[in-house]
Design a protein that fits this description.
Number of domains: 1
Radius of gyration: 18 Å
Shape: globular
CATH topology: outer membrane lipoprotein receptor (LolB), chain A
Order of helices and strands: HEHHEEEEEEHEEEEEEEEE
Strand content: over 45%
Distance between the termini: 26 Å
Number of strands: 16
Helix content: 10-25%
């Protein structure tokens, strides 16, 4: 898996009868989905999430191993570091600034820095919200929740709910109507995200493994798995971790 291919994961880490839902009339399925993840007190206490794990291609012929570190910090900070034999790639969001830094594996002096554009920043902000808000409050960020009705997915009776940050950034989630468990997430670009297993941290349920399927420019698909080895909540991270690096940084 080349560096340019696993880079496609980041914009993704990461679509009946339609009715818009206001903040004053929350859908019952959202309350049920939150309750499945943890108590209200446990969810509201989460200010940052720190994931450590490994990213692998679903194709067994691709033996590339990528160490992955993901940090989300309220309200809108994010940092993803992917390290492999091909180098180190860092993608970060600092409120309304975002950047990407790549570094050669054997020569720290060989690196490049790219500032990300408006559309990429909007997507990173949406992704950060999705990971920290636990499905509630998108209206306060200018988005909306759209109930797209009852559907059956993988033999499970689900409620299909679209979380619309804008017309161009949509996370469509399928929740088990009986339990509130998230069965599948789709993105407006045709990608999908499935969660397997669980890790309980401070009373909050997180997935053990995420399988991300995305469409490639050539019309094919790319599937990657991220398996988490450790998840820590509510660490405090320095501002410098998210700020745009100095051009003299090595």
């Amino acid at each position: 898996m080349t560096k340019s291919r696993f880079r496609l994961f980041f914009p993704t880490l990461l679509s009946l009868v339609v009715c818009a839902v206001s903040a004053r009339a929350e859908l019952p399925i959202i309350a049920k989905a939150r309750a499945y993840l943890g108590t209200e007190a446990a969810l509201k206490a989460v200010k940052s999430i720190h994931y450590l794990g490994a990213l692998t291609a679903a194709d067994p012929a691709d033996k590339t191993q990528v160490a992955i570190e993901i940090i989300f910090q309220a309200p809108f900070r994010q940092r993803i570091t992917a390290t492999s034999g091909k180098g180190v790639e860092i993608t970060a969001l600092d409120n309304y600034d975002a950047w990407q830094r790549t570094q050669e594996p054997k020569d720290p002096a060989r690196w490049s820095l790219q500032l990300l554009g408006k559309d990429q920043i909007k997507r990173l902000r949406a992704n950060t919200w999705q990971n920290l808000a636990f499905f509630r409050g998108i209206e306060r960020e200018g988005g909306k929740v759209v109930d797209q009705g009852a559907v059956t997915l993988d033999g499970v009776a689900c409620r299909k709910i679209a979380f619309m940050h804008s017309d161009a950034i949509v996370f469509t989630r399928y929740f088990d109507q009986a339990t509130g468990r998230l069965v599948l997430t789709e993105t407006e670009s045709g990608g999908s995200i499935r969660e397997q297993g669980e890790i309980m941290v401070n009373g909050v349920r997180f997935p053990k493994t995420i399988t991300n399927t995305s469409k490639l420019p050539d019309g094919g698909t790319q599937q990657i798995n991220i398996t988490f080895s450790k998840i820590t909540l509510n660490e405090t991270f320095p501002d410098s971790l998210f700020a745009i690096p100095s051009l003299s940084t090595k």
